[in-house]
Design goal:
The complex is a heterodimer of chains A (319) and B (87).
Chain A: E1 6-13, H1 19-28, E2 35-39, E3 51-54, E4 59-63, E5 68-72, H2 73-82, E6 91-95, H3 103-111, H4 113-118, E7 119-129, H5 140-147, E8 151-155, H6 162-175, E9 180-183, E10 224-232, H7 237-251, E11 255-263, E12 269-276, E13 279-287, E14 295-303, H8 310-315
Parallel strand pairs in A: 1-6, 1-7, 2-3, 2-6, 7-8, 8-9
Antiparallel strand pairs in A: 4-5, 10-14, 11-12, 11-14, 12-13
Chain B: H1 13-27, E1 35-41, E2 50-56, E3 62-66, H2 75-83
Antiparallel strand pairs in B: 1-2, 2-3
The chains are: A alpha/beta (319), B alpha+beta (87).
Chain lengths: 319, 87
């Protein structure tokens, strides 16, 4: 009997970027995994011998007094039914529509106890059309889909000049300091780059280009951007809790994602965390190694981050 | 709300499924109405440390709270919560 959690990949990307191409590759590639898929456009996906389920994006607002968030109610229902056939698949891919905000899908996996027990979010994979994305760059949908991505396939690179590709990549990194970007044609990519990424695994809380961490604030052209904090010292957990709780309650809608590693006063274990809007997920991690410099590192991705006074207000939590 | 408090033990998934079925039965919900169960640390004053929140996804969402851990929620507790006003 299979008892381990099912990894889940959220596949997003603007209209025409190549989501369905990638999805069909995932379904036909000989990677040894049986993949179940939840799609919004049923007819375009190869369905022979595969578990493919049609969904309508039904978004509900949940406010339980502590957390206010949006979730995909249809996924809660569909996944509840799907898990009765748990032995028939190893991995679940959820394809969103081209104009979708990824946040409700992600949040669904953090609020429902049945889903939390049975499935683990693996990664948000965003397909970006290198040839056409600039025409929609300022749209909320494109900004969100880039900001929430753990993996971006910058697709159709054969149709775009190298200098333009470099420029697009720099713009995406300024928005999302945590994302891994792959250049692709026809979404041809090794399956290990999109399945089994473990981007939401707390043990991999912060894998980031060291050059980005701790630099002075970059100029940003986009409404969505990233900011990092690196501070030596130890945090007082009560002060940190007060700060973080207030930050998420006040600015949650503008904080898309965050990840961090903390050095907690009187603790030998690192504390690792990640968040999506108001949802906070953290746990003690391994012990600090004797040779390691204990420090606090965090990355935030969102809007209006410079108005949140992140650096100074975090420093006030240090002992 | 203490974000850094260790998460209480996850409730058994079979029990969560039972709670959802009780909600379905008590409210005569159709199969197309999603129900979500969340176990949370309560932040209100004088509140037990753990509560179970039932979200019935109609538009708007109907929310019911039970001041117990999910594992301690039984049919009678669900019935009592649903008979009170939704929050």
């Amino acid at each position: 009997m299979v008892s381990s959690a099912v990894p889940v990949t959220v596949l997003t990307g603007y209209l025409g970027a190549g989501k369905t191409t990638l999805l069909n590759q995932i379904l036909t590639h000989e990677h040894g995994k049986k993949v179940a898929v939840i799609v919004n456009e049923f007819g375009e996906v190869g369905i022979d011998n595969q578990l493919v389920i049609d969904a309508d994006e039904e978004i509900f607002e949940m406010n339980n007094g502590c957390i206010c968030c949006t979730v995909r109610g249809d996924l809660i229902r569909i996944i509840g039914n799907l898990m009765r056939r748990r032995d028939q698949f190893d991995h679940l891919v959820i394809e969103t529509t081209g104009l979708a905000d990824p946040a409700p899908v992600i949040q669904t996996f953090f609020v429902d106890e049945e889903i939390q027990a049975q499935l683990d979010l693996d990664a948000v994979v965003t397909v970006v059309d290198a040839q056409h994305v600039e025409a929609h760059w300022d749209s909320e949908e494109v900004q969100e889909q880039i900001a929430f991505a753990d993996v971006i396939l910058l697709n159709k690179t054969d149709l775009v000049e190298p200098d333009k590709l470099k420029e697009l990549e720099q713009k995406m990194r300024a928005m999302n300091a945590l994302v891994k970007i792959h250049h692709t044609q026809h979404c041809e990519i090794g399956m290990d780059s999109v399945l089994g990424v473990k981007a939401f695994d707390l043990k991999r809380a912060l894998e980031i280009d060291p050059e980005f961490l701790g630099e002075d604030a970059h100029e940003h052209d986009d409404s969505v951007y990233s900011r990092s904090i690196v501070e030596a010292g130890a945090v007082n957990l009560d002060k940190l809790n007060t700060w973080m709780t207030n930050l998420l309650e006040t600015h949650g809608p503008n904080i898309f994602r965050m990840k961090g590693i903390l050095n907690v006063e009187n603790e030998d274990q690192r504390f690792v965390f990640q968040g999506v809007h108001m949802i906070f997920d953290g746990a003690p991690d391994r012990n600090w190694k004797p040779t390691e410099t204990r420090k606090n590192e965090m990355v935030f991705i969102g809007r209006d981050l410079d108005e949140m006074n992140l650096q100074d207000s975090f420093k006030a939590c240090l002992v | 709300m203490n974000l850094f408090e260790r998460r209480s033990t996850a409730p058994p998934v079979e029990h969560i499924q039972h709670i959802k079925q009780w909600v379905n039965d008590l409210l005569s919900l159709g199969d197309d109405v999603p129900v979500s169960i969340s176990q949370l640390r309560c932040h209100e004053p004088d509140c037990p440390p753990v509560e179970t929140v039932i979200s019935v996804m109609t538009q708007p969402t109907q929310t019911y709270k039970i001041h117990r851990s999910a594992a301690e929620v039984n049919y009678d507790a669900v019935a009592a919560a649903l008979s009170s006003s939704a929050q």
